[in-house]
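Researcher: Re-running this chain for the archive, since the previous output was lost when a drive failed. Same request as before.
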Amino acid sequence: MNTMNKSRFMTRTATASALASILLLSACSGGGGGSAASKKQDPNGKVTLNFITQSSAIAPADPNDKLVNKRLEEKTNVHINWKNFTNDVFVEKRNLAVASGDLPDAIFNADYSDYELLKLAKDGSIIPLNDLIDQYMPNFKKVLEEAPEYKSMITAPDGKIYAFPWIEELGNGKERIQAVDSMPWINVEWLKKLNLKMPTTTEELKKVLIAFKTQDPNGNGQADEIPLSFINKPGAEDLAFLFASFGLGENPDHAVVSNDGKVIFTAADEGYKKAVSFVNELYKEGLIDIEAYTQDWSTYLAKGKDQKYGLYFSWDKANITGANESYEVMPPLAGPDGEINVTRTNGLGLGRGKMVVTSANKNLETTAKWVDQLYDPTQSVQDNWGTYGDDKQQNIFEYDEASNMLKHLPLEGTAPVELREKTSIGGPLAILDSYYGKYTTMPDDAKGRMDIIKNIMAPHMKADNVMPSVFNSIEELDRLTTIETDLFAYVLRMRTEWYQNGKINEQWDGYLKELDRLGLQEWLKIKQGGYDRATKG
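Model: Regenerated C-alpha cells:
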C-alpha cells in the first residue's frame, strides 16, 4: 500500500509444486556472461544475476540477509548479487547507473513512472517482457487470467509490457483500502479529559483544537500540546482530508471525476478556496504545528510517539502514535453548508513500474522464471509483508500446516511499517482478494482500516467515479510531466502562503489565470482523454 508508509507471503518448499519449480529453475542456466550477468557460473548450475534495488535504512544493507531472499535462493538455485541503496538516494543512483551505460541485469523495486518506462524503452535500456511472460511465467499468467483488468493497465499504448507490476488488492469500489489515503486521527484521551465530544462539524473542530491549545489536556502544566499537525505536501500525512467538508475535496494528484464523467482539477474549485480559508482560520488561532510546513517523516514521527498531537493525519495511526487507544479516527465533518463528503482517492494497489529487465541481461529465461516465483501466491504474501520462522527477529506470520496458510501474528506494539521494511522484499508480486482465507489472513491493521472505510468513510463518498490507472502515450506523458512540474509546485506554494497570510480571496482570480498559463487546460484535456479511453473503450 502507499501508501508508501503503507501496508506491504512462501510456504515450505517440500510441496510437489515447489519441488517442480526447483527442478525447472535449476535446469536452466539461461546462457552465460554478458556485461551484467555473472560470467562465472556455479559448478552446481547456480546462476548469478546482478540487480540494483532500494530498501529502507532500517532494513539489512544486503538484501540476501533477509530470510525471504535466503529461501528464494534455495528454491530457485539463483543467486542475486544486489547493489542496494537506501530509499533517499535510490533514484539518483539508479539514474546514474542507467546513464553511465553500466547496466545491471534488472532493476528491482525500480518504481519507475510511466514516462520513465517509455523513455527507457525508446532508448533501448530496458526490454519488452511480453514473450518472457508468455513462455516462462505461468504464475504471473494465472494472475492476469484471474484479474484480466491488470493486463490492459500494465500494457503500454504500443502493446508492449515494459515492467513487472506490484499488485495488492484489499476490497473494491468505495470500500477499497486505498479509497481514502490520508486519515484524521484525534486524541480521544484529550477529548475525555476536557469533557469534549467528538467534533461533527468544521466549526466544532476549531473549538476542540482551541481547547487542546488552551486547557492543558495532557495535564503537565505546560502549553506544549500541538493541536494540529501534518506534513505540508501531497500524501497520507497531508491535511487535505478536511477539504472535502467544503466541496469536492482534494487529492494528491489534484484530480477528481464528477458523477457525469468530467475530470476536475481540485485546486481550481471554489470549495478548495473555502477549505484553504478555513485552514488560515486555524493558523490565525495558533493551532497549527509551526513545523508543519518544513518537517519530514522522522520529525513528524518523533512528536507523534510522544503523544503531542491533538489531531494529525496518517495512513495508519500505529505508524505514528502506536497501536493504542489514545487516538481514534475522526469521522468526516459537515462543512459550513451542512454537507458531509469524503473524497475518493484515485488510489489502486498497482505499481506499474516495479521491476524492469535491461538490455544487458544475457540470462533472460532464468530471470523470467525467478521473477515468476515472486508471483506464486504464498511467495507474494511474504514478498509484500514479511515471513515466518525467523529465529532472529519478530515474525509477521506463522505457518499453519493444517490449512497450508500463512497467518498474521499480532504486531505486539510494533509499528507495522517498521517490521515490514525490515523483513519484506517488495518487488513484483500479486495479492488478489481471492487470496485472503486461502493463502493468508488479512493483516489486523488492514482489517481495522477496511472497517473504518466501510462504516465511517464510504457512506459519505459522493463521487461514483475515480480516475482510472491510465497508461498514456509518451507524447502525452511528456506534456503531463512538463506541465505538472511547474503547475503542482505553484499550487503547493500558493496554498502554503494562503494558509499563513489569508489572501486567497483577493489573489484567487490571478491564481486561476496563472494556472491556465502553466498549462491547466491542456492537462485537463489529456486527463479527460485518458479517462474516456479507459472507461468507454
